[in-house]
Design goal:
- There is one protein chain.
- The chain is mostly helical and about 55 residues long.
- It has 2 helices and no strands.
- It is about 85% helix and about 0% strand.
């Protein structure tokens, strides 16, 4: 997969996770553990994006 496509894919996943975090935070009884897991995944993806940007 070309780097541009990979970065675009990672950004799409990053945005989807951001939406999932927002949805969870606005539930009547948010699951704090789920929010932490989502934030970790979001950070992992952000690091991957940064890594691909450094290589480009």
């Amino acid at each position: 997969m070309p780097a541009d496509e990979r970065i675009a894919s990672l950004r799409t996943k990053h945005a989807a996770i951001e939406n999932a975090i927002d949805d969870e935070e606005h539930r009547p009884h948010p699951d704090d553990l789920r929010i932490v897991e989502l934030k970790r995944e979001k950070l992992r993806i952000k690091d991957q994006i940064a890594g691909h940007m450094d290589q480009a």
